[in-house]
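FORM 7B - TANDEM STRUCTURE REPORT

SECTION 1: FIRST PROTEIN
SEQUENCE AND TOKENS:
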Amino acid sequence: MALDQKTLNKVIILKLAGQLPGLRQAMLSDAVMDSLQMNFFEYSQALSELIEGKLLYKAVRKREPHLDADQQAVERIDITPKGTEVLQTLEAQIPEAVNKWIRRKVDELKGEQNLLETHSSRLRQTGTGEWLLILERYETEVPNFTISLTFPTKEMAKKAASAWEAASVDLYELILKHLLAN
């Protein structure tokens, strides 16, 4: 029996969340919009109903080091045991074309997720009115590289944070190369 569109929307979200634990909410919404299976309103409604039904949960993790563009800790989406149970029941009814898209999207998002989770930047104002920028690199849950920089203006600190976000791997390697040069 084929799933109705509203149920299919929810199953797509459950499957993505189930295969990508700790997925950032922004990444989930972008992925779902890319599916062309639902619009933003339908996605928002499905996500809300899944959270209210305790099939998914949305939360900011304790000591979340990763911030969004507004310097707020990122919200993550995870599937609950109840959500996993529902997904297992309905999974066989997902059309093959949608399953194929989900497999491709999961592979793509895993790469994006790994890249995003390897670095972070945090910004805060100091007691002297300057801006402290903390840049970090991760190989596990714990940062293996941290550097703190002070800037006279918020704009300069944000520009440096953006550069770090865009090229943290290259900048990290360049810094290490210069620090460890003979």
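SECTION 2: SECOND PROTEIN
SEQUENCE AND TOKENS:
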Amino acid sequence: MFIQPWDAALDDAEWQTWIAAGHDFGILSVNGLPGQAPVVVPTHFTVDGAALLMHLARPNPVWKTIEADSNVTFTVTSDYAFIPGPWRAKPGTEPTDGVPTSYYAAVQFTCQATIVDEPQAKAELLRRQMAHFQPNGDHAPIDPDQPPLRADAARYPRPAPGRL
């Protein structure tokens, strides 16, 4: 991501405060397997110190790519606007000579992904995420010795194919 010097974060506290203000959804980008396109996964996340925590379903194709190369990028964007060219035309020039641009807030992390596959550790990671997203605890218990939450189709039906 190209960042002009005047647009760079003033310090770590600036982006940390912005993330803490509710920007907890981003795009995980992972190098594709040889000959394949990169894998891009929109997902929720939480911050734990210097770590980003996310929980992804095992069938997600991103797992194989992370196993092959754990270098990933995670991008969070918000507060964006398209600025038409005429709005940026220099005084004394034709409005059509103005150059359009986009203004947005974004944080981009370059990370080394670590796959957590041990059942107790996965459960703890999911508990920490649920504490962030559902702090009142209004969710099923997270127990690695019990079926996953989505296994109960009556309580958590899967969306129909092709529907959002």
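SECTION 3: OBSERVATIONS ON SECOND PROTEIN
Residues 150-160 have pLDDT under 50 and may be disordered.
Residues 21-134 form a domain with the Pnp Oxidase; Chain A fold (CATH 2.30.110.10).

SECTION 4: SIGNATURE
Preparer initials: ____
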